[in-house]
Amino acid sequence: MDELVRGLSKSQQAELAEDHGSNPSTGPTMGDVVAQRYNRRDLLKGLLAVPAIGAVSALAIETVERANAQAMNTSTTPSFNFTEIPAASQERDQVAEGYDADVLMRWGDPVLPGAPAFDPRNQTAAAQAMQFGYNNDYIGYFPIEGSSEHGLLAINHEYTNEELMFPGLGRQDTRTVAFRGMTKALADIEMMAHGGSVIEIRKTNGKWAVVPNSRYARRITAETPMEITGPARGHARMRTSYDPTGTLVRGMLNNCAGGRTPWGTWLTCEENVNGYFWGDMPESHPEFRNYRRMGIPGRWYNWGTYYDRFDVTKEPNEANRFGWTVEIDPFDPTFVPKKRTAMGRFKHEGAAGIVSGTGHYVIYQGDDERFDYVYRFVSRNRVTGNRAQDQHLLEDGTLSVARYDADGTVHWLPLVFGQGPLTAANGFQSQADVMIETRRASDLLGATRMDRPEDIDANFRTQRIYVMLTNNNRRTAEQVNPANPRADNRFGHIVEMIPPGDDHTAATFRWDILVRCGDPSVAGVGATFHPNTTRDGWFGMPDNCAIDGQGRLWIATDGNSPSRTGRADGLWALETHGQARATSKLFYRCPAGAELCGPEFVPDDTSLFVGNQHPGEADEENPNAQPTTFETATTRWPDFRPDMPPRPSIVAITKRGGGKIA
Ligand code: FEO
Ligand code: CA
Ligand code: CA
Hints:
The chain has 12 helices and 29 strands. By secondary structure, the protein is an alpha+beta fold. A hairpin with a 2-residue loop joins strand 5 and strand 6 (207-210). The site of one calcium ion (CA) has 7 residues, from strand 10 and strand 23. One calcium ion binds next to loops.
């Protein structure tokens, strides 16, 4: 169908967005190889050339051998005890045999007391503000009294798909339909469907349910008042006509993944905030360079036509107040969320925290854009165990950016005003400037440009850190580096970082590649899964991840589809140690069109929560795919009612009869 009619989904707009400093690929690409693969699968099997670069250093190999020698698992059989499910794409989701995957919470279900029942044909902003929001991404489980059967879930609502939410609307964007179907009433619903939810849940007779009218229940939206903390608090570049103090902001936007702190707070990370801003910023404007580096204004939403604060022409500083990590106490529904500017401003994916052996709190974060960076925040003060005191730890600390060297060393380069190039000569007058323009500061430090850093997790057992690099179809052969070894990297890879002992504050770590993703049976892809990985067991596009109670790694994906990888997204268990290292097994598969978010285990591993985001989207690289709308979605999961759209939902996975997952 004509693109003018078809329009662009929000994820397509993200794909098309300009990445500054990137070069277009030339020559035959991995994409060509793969397109052939999934069009003429059998014909081409095994006949392709091997252009992928094998730039793993001798030291990195030595690291692997040492890890293998020390491994807990000397068997080539992975430690994950479940029967793998088939890789496929179907209208329904599927979990491994012997497990139940029960829908716990859907878009539109009541969160706050008095919320009206979900009625998609008569939705209002007032109703949405009390109901579960759209596109659930991060899921954090906060136990009540240590329980694995009673706790809070804090959930991010990252963005909205207007074409799937609103009957008769279709896709809306600047390039094609000029938002002509949008109204202020619809924009208001979208704003209330963003943010986050806190719900109380309890497991009774083996089944999870939401506790109605909970005193913890909370909705956070694009309007919730928040406080700005840290070096950029009160800075002139943070002041607007609404907030001349530069300390208060309304709402959080595009909150993707997140994290939990040991003092029981929820970290929720603003990612593609550029898309919400509208208007024009002339090249002569002092914020032009800053905003261009973040892709602002992105114009993916037309809220700026109704609200001046989303129009950079009218309110040029508002966009500096987004792109931060937000800390929230989920146990206190009156808590004013805190934007933590000491952790930098970029397209934060998530926040993987760990207490260093030194006592400092350390958070690893990815900046999800092609050619952007991996960061580490080290708190200035040590964790005390006193909750009230520790709630201030993220106000002050040192942010560093990663440089991955060919000898297997990671160098953490501190982003500190006055050090190296971060001076007035380059336009930085203070630490606030360095944090507001974290990306430009990192460019100047010579950080390693990565293949879209998504989620990161720090393994509390082994101290190793896993970085999901989801893909980068714009990296050319000239741009490969040891930590990003494939040109036209369609399927992504996972980087492992190894601190010296348990010191996460050290200036240098070791690094290695755990696995290069994609179909191992296509030589040109250059995937490096363990040979015992089955045809169902490999995956592409790692996005979210989790470490279970045994210290094992689980990977949720975003971007697999019949046309790209011959499979839907899902949850794979991936061995990290021993002879079975890099063996992967498929545990749960999303309904059609969805990506998998979460995942989150309860402390004793007897339950696992996952989120299906944007079920019903089209397989966008299939040229024959019909555009999907409320009416024509590829699935109507989870209700399967003709009058109900597909609904992003949280799923609780438990073992039938009880017991630990896998
Ligand atoms: Fe929102 Fe980087 O995924
Ligand atoms: Ca993500
Ligand atoms: Ca994602």
